[in-house]
Amino acid sequence: MSELGAVDSALLDVLLREAPIGFALLDSAGRFQRVNRALAEVYGRDPAQCHGRTPADLLEGDPDRAAHDSAVAAVLSGAGTVHSEHRLEGGPPDASGRPRQWALSWHPATGSDGTLEGVVLIAVDCSDRFSAEVALRRSEERYRSLLTATNQVVWTADANGDVQEDCPDWRVITGQTAEQYLGRGWLDAAHPDDHEQVARAWTDAVADRTTFDEIFRVRTQSGDFRYYRSRAVPIMRGDTLMEWVGAHSDITTQHDADDMRQRLTQQLGEAALRTVRLQKATSDLAEALTVGEVVQAMTEIGQSAVGADTTTVGELDRDNLRLHVLRDDSAVPGGRAVPAAAPGDLRVAMETAVRERRPFIAGNPAELRELVEDDPEVLAFLRETDERAWVALPLLSAGQPIGALRFTFSSARDISDEEKVFLEALAGQCALALERAKLFEREHRTAEALQASLLPEDLPKVKGISMQAFYRSGTQHVQVGGDWYDAFPLPDGRIAGVLGDVMGKGIKAATGMSRVRNALRALAFSMPEPADVLTGLDRMFDATEGLDQVTTLVYFVLDPETGQIDLSNAGHPPPLVVGEHTEPWLLAAEPDTPLGVSSERGHHKFFVQPGNTVVLYSDGLVENRKRAVATGLEELVTVASQARPEVVGDPQHMLQYLVEGMLAGYEQDDDVTLLAVHLPVLDTAPE
Prior knowledge:
This protein is an alpha+beta fold. Helix 10 runs parallel beside helix 15 (417-454), helix 16 (507-526) crosses helix 17 and helix 18 (629-641) packs across helix 20 (651-663).
């Protein structure tokens, strides 16, 4: 090794001592001759401890020892400069407290004549670069792990949208070769139904330089298809598009979960809707009282809740031998349900459902032909009908068939298991409603017969008097009302008449009314004067009737010769008098208390002029939920004053006119009973 001059030696000493880079000079035997402080600290020594020793001596027991020996030997053997790929850790920690990392390089030291005299070791602090490399490597590892965890495949394309770099991960999925994949060949892995849409979207994104984001099905090597989401973004440098970077993500599991969730949501929604529809149908059928109303309600339910084009209700006859179609009341004169013969296809569908006691479902004509085994009648029917789907369900009561329910559709219909359950529940409600309606009609006919038996069949015919009565039940149920009227001749030639009202409905009110009527007739024949008759009824009430059996009535006795009326009123609305030439008025006599309430019975006398009509009526004519009695009485006088002369002179027309005028715009909620006594103007015979 050449000797340095004094100046050069001093300069070298300063550099070795103060430089942040580690310097060392090793002789031809690999021993340290000069070592600056920075390099000595890397080895954990001071410079004096390093002098005359080899790096291997300083690294005894350290894994880096062999690397140092190899590097020194290589330089001394003439290999030139050697850069170690290994990072030596040592020296004071950096500002963050982490150990420093040093990059080592070994250079040959030659004399002036070019002779190799030793080795120069240079150590450079690369802690920052090492940390960056570690961070970058960790980031890459995390990124790759994330891609693996999310089933993502990264891909790139040039500015024109063509793939130039191979993507083995994608080819493993699709089975494509590199040649098949490059360019825009990756699009060929898309499902045939999705290919055109995805290719167009990629072309548009490239042209517009906008983000590409599409979901499509990809054919895998196994031949099945999986859902992928492909998203790519343009990489710009200023205004220049450099390339596209994207990722294919397998979203099959998510897509299947979303699809399942949507199906479940739809099924739950449909189930909730069917529940609401069944509740509505149950409510509507509960309000149907007659068989015709049940059929009408089912027709509306079939349209709104089932979506059927036609709905048919059939009933078995008493012998359970034949099935008849029931019509709704609105389609039949008189409001009665009548049976009708069933057409051929109805006989097959409905009778099969009744016979087998299970639903008969044909979602299209082919299914119908298969179910009926190509019945010639059905084949002929199919050639003429527009119907394309049929559902027939048995109507069961206590497990026994009583009829059938049938829906038809103008288009093919796939009846799911859930809808089948709904239709069977609907048929069950229809069967209950039909049974209730049949029971109601039987009991209603019985009630009507009982009501008719309690009212007189004919009013007495007396010369000089015209009498008419009107009765309309105000209940929608099968109970008998408490209103009644009666008229009969007395032994002395006069006519007795009465109109009364027993509070309540049903058998109790009817029997109470019957007792009062019979007692009144018996009293009238022995002591006909009104006050006497009502006094006798009070005594009968005390003996036979309860305190809650409130009864009101108007009883009168009319002399046909003179037109005199003697009248007593037991808590009843006042009679109406309608004259041909005078304004109508109410008899102003104050009514007494109802029967059974002790009081002195009043007796009122007045004369009916020829041409006038006296009308007795129940409170159902003037009182309802929306109109008080006082208001109703005022309206009654007003309505009567507007009657035409020909109506005033005809008691039958007069009663009909009053009922129509007083009930117009109101819902009748009580019995309405009227009794009219008219004294016509008699023509005088010529002398």
